[in-house]
């Protein structure tokens, strides 16, 4: 009779031990156990989150900034504490430990209370500089509530991920050596999470954005004026359908100064400014839209004007009136401006999704128009210029790298608020003269490229202009220009002594991770502050830039001052 068999115990792989989750760490997502070191570091990071950045922050933005920053601090502190224990490093014993903890915690709480007390005052310093109404201490309930809510949500998400990882490690640990289980499990989960973030969530985000902004682009608002002038796209004589121009295209062709306004400003002799435009739905392809614009330029007599501008739009198809109107006043309407839409998404979304689209559209439109323009007699054809605001300046830079520009150069370009992805702008800034600040560089004494701001800086450099004139118009307070992922771990030159712009708070400092997050949060609000700061460029600064780029004959600084005063009195239409 054989003895009853018993199940063999699970095999234990050599060099390993069965997986058991750490008993010292909270295992439930909603556990009220917290890391003491993590909470203390979180208090320090909360204090850092209240320091000023480039733009004034409202209660909602401050709450988001603080909530995320607090959890960055908590994660770093809790991670450091866990690593300390894992490595088996002995702690400070007895009374000395209690004293050190009291000092560290006390300083963290003091920093949080002190910066909390000063936060409204610091924000009001920036708001006063920008001419904004001061903030009230009543913002604090919103800041605290949003900070706590966001911190809790992030903590729950982090603990859920930790639980997921531990569950997978435990399942694999019963089948594989422990270290192999950790490596394999981590690799698989990280790959899945990355795919989820970059695939499903990103695609879902853009799908929602498309559903929101596509109908808006087709809307014909009551304040849109369909032009009757044959010099405009969308008019009865135009080859471009009014309905297909897109929202911003309709505002562009229906706006701008009238002949009467130009005559009043310049003493008579004005021409009707030419404005041509192709919307995203005006043709099925980029080349089709470029061909349509060229046909419109020919139809309107644009090549008989003194000045022709190929303008690259922002993400929505927007062309800023502060960038276009001053040029038309400056040349008394003897101008033609052409634009082509490549997207209907806001620039901050297009910056993520449409960089290739703006580059392709800019190059195709330029090549199409430039090829025809270059066949005309040099003595009688118009001067050819480029213009781009924000993401549009990325398109201008892509044109400047074209071989066609080298063979048949343009006369100049104005690029306003160039975003941080602009490679040429970054290279020129890095190679600036050592005695010029990062927020307003001087490059090779200003012969070909000059930088300016709200306060005219175009006279710097000491060199006479060359045949082609390029101007970058930028504010030191514009986060779209000065944001960079490198802010996470590298202090920017524009915050160093002697490099800081006049519209940047003297109290703004750099801290790893925190400053990048703060400036990132400045991006969406860069166009929602008073004119002349952030990403809003005034008519006067654009006028001064166009004077430098186009160099109209007989023009004087007195005329610039007079026209600038007139332009600032005109209402700005935010479309």
Features:
575 residues, alpha/beta, 7-stranded parallel beta sheet, 18 helices, 49% helix, 7% strand
Into which percentage range does the β-strand content fall? 5-15%
Structural class: alpha/beta
Q: What is the tally of helical segments?
A: 18
What is the CA-atom radius of gyration, in angstroms?
30 Å
Q: Count the beta strands.
A: 7
Domain count, please report it: 2
Q: How much helix is in the residues?
A: 40-55%
Distance from first to last alpha carbon = 94 Å
Describe the 3D structure:
The chain is an alpha/beta fold and 575 residues long. The chain has two domains: 36-175, no CATH class; 221-569, no CATH class. It is 49% helix and 7% strand. The protein is built from 18 helices and seven strands. It has a seven-stranded parallel β-sheet with strand order 1-3-2-4-5-7-6, with helices on both faces. The longest helix is centred in the middle third of the chain and has 41 residues, at 178-218. Residues 1-26 have low confidence and may be disordered. The chain crosses the membrane at residues 29-51, 63-87, 99-118, 138-158, 179-206. Pfam families: Abhydrolase_9, Abhydrolase_9_N. Keywords: Membrane, Transmembrane, Transmembrane helix.
């Amino acid at each position: 009779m054989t003895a009853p068999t018993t199940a063999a115990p699970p095999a234990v792989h050599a060099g390993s031990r069965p997986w058991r989750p750490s008993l010292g760490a909270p295992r439930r997502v909603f556990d009220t156990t917290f890391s003491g070191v993590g909470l203390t570091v979180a208090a320090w990071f909360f204090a850092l989150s209240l320091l000023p950045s480039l733009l004034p922050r409202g209660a909602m933005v401050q709450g988001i900034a603080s909530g995320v920053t607090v959890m960055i601090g908590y994660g770093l502190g809790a991670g450091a504490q866990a690593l300390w224990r894992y490595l088996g490093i002995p702690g400070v014993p007895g009374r000395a430990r209690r004293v050190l903890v009291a000092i560290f915690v006390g300083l963290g709480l003091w920093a949080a209370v002190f910066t909390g007390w000063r936060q409204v005052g610091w924000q009001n310093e920036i708001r006063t500089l920008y001419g904004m109404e001061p903030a009230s201490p009543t913002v604090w309930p919103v800041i605290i509530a949003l900070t706590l809510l966001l911190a809790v949500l992030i903590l729950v998400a982090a603990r859920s991920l930790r639980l997921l990882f531990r569950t997978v490690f435990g399942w694999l640990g019963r089948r594989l050596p422990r270290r192999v289980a950790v490596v394999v499990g981590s690799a698989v989960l990280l790959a899945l999470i990355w795919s989820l973030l970059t695939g499903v969530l990103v695609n879902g985000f853009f799908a929602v954005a498309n559903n929101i902004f596509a109908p808006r682009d087709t809307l014909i608002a009551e304040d849109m004026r369909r032009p009757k002038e044959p010099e405009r796209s969308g008019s009865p004589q135009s080859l471009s359908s009014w309905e297909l121009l897109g929202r911003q295209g309709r505002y562009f062709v229906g706006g701008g100064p009238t002949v009467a306004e130009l005559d009043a400003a310049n003493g008579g002799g004005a021409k009707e400014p030419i404005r041509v435009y192709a919307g995203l739905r005006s043709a099925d392809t980029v080349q089709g839209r470029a061909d349509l614009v060229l046909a419109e330029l020919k139809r309107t007599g644009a090549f008989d004007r003194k000045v022709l501008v190929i303008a690259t739009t922002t993400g929505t198809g927007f062309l800023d009136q502060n960038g276009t109107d001053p040029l038309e006043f400056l040349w008394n309407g003897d101008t033609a401006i052409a634009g082509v839409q490549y997207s209907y998404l806001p620039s901050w979304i297009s910056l993520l999704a449409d960089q290739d689209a703006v580059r392709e559209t800019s190059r195709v439109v330029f090549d199409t128009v430039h090829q025809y323009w270059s066949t005309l007699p040099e003595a009688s054809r118009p001067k050819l210029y480029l213009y781009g605001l924000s993401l549009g300046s990325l398109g201008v830079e892509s044109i400047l790298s074209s071989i066609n520009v080298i063979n048949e150069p343009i006369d100049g370009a104005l690029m306003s608020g160039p975003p941080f992805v602009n490679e040429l702008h970054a290279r020129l800034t890095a190679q600036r003269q050592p005695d010029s600040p990062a927020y307003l560089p001087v490059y090779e004494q200003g012969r070909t490229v000059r930088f300016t701001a709200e306060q005219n800086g175009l006279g710097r450099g000491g060199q006479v202009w060359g045949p082609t004139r390029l101007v970058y118009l930028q504010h030191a307070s514009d986060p779209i220009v000065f944001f960079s992922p490198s802010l996470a771990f590298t202090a920017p030159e524009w915050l160093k002594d002697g490099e800081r712009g006049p519209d940047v708070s003297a109290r703004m400092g750099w801290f790893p991770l925190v400053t990048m997050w703060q400036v990132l949060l400045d991006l969406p609000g860069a166009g929602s502050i008073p004119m002349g700061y952030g990403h809003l460029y005034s008519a006067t600064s654009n006028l001064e830039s166009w004077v430098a780029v186009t160099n109209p004959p007989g023009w004087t600084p007195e005329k610039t001052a007079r026209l600038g005063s007139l332009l600032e009195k005109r209402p700005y239409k935010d479309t």
